[in-house]
What we know:
Layout: E1 15-17, E2 23-25, H1 29-32, H2 34-43, H3 50-56, H4 59-63, H5 67-72, E3 82-88, H6 93-110, E4 114-120, E5 123-124, E6 130-131, H7 136-151, H8 156-168, H9 176-185, H10 190-197, H11 203-216, E7 224-227, E8 230-236, E9 239-241, H12 249-259
Parallel strand pairs: 3-4
Antiparallel strand pairs: 1-2, 3-7, 5-6, 7-8, 8-9
Helix pairs in contact: 6-8, 6-12, 7-8, 7-10, 7-11, 8-9
Amino acid sequence: MDEKTATTRRQTSATLPDKSGVNMPNPRLSRSRKFLIGLLSLVLPVYIIISLLSDALSAPQQMGTSPAESLLSADCNNCSLVPLEAHIMSKCPDARDCLRDLVVPAMEQVVDKVNFTLSFIGSVDSNDSVHCKHGSTECLGNMLALCAINLYPLDPIIYLGFSNCLISSYSKIPSRELVEPCALEHGIPFEDLNACVSEEGKGLDLLTDSIERSEAARVKRSCTVRVDNKIWCVRDGGQWKDCPGGSDVNSLVQEVKRLYK
């Protein structure tokens, strides 16, 4: 999906009406964090059932070996990890398709051979205002994913799984009914996510840095997949585009393996 216009803007008023009619707090205040407080009180209550969390914490281990462990047993000790990056918007149907059909299944096969980055598309203007194409709730969805990355930077099994879970039902972002089971499934405590996106947390700074990274790479379309810092394939308007190497999982996996040397 082409990022042409922003539907979320920081204004001088304290609140910003979202498309749903709900007044979304303005992210400009105090480095744009105050808009999260009221929203989070509705969608991310800081509580957790210890017994459920205990069970959920074991889930990532069941999915496979962590990247750190995989690197220790890699078949090429002197190989360099291949840069693999997906640029997305959290409330974009193309991002859903891209993660589900290409990025996640490919990562299951090459997680020990890549340096994976999940980046977000938007804009930051000269007034330090953050713009998300699908509104304030998309900004929050982006921040939730980035906070998961910040909490588990060496384990994409966790943060990519959590992000894919959210984006699979992107229209529900950031409802508690979606975020809660996704967090529990991937062993991410609510209080840690809440602290990250709160007024004193890192959420907005992480989003700003991520948007600027996508802008520096001149990426505007969600979803854009890059391999070795070059565009590999784009999912846009419900179609795969600009994919000279192929849009299927096997082609991406083989390219990573070719570059892993």
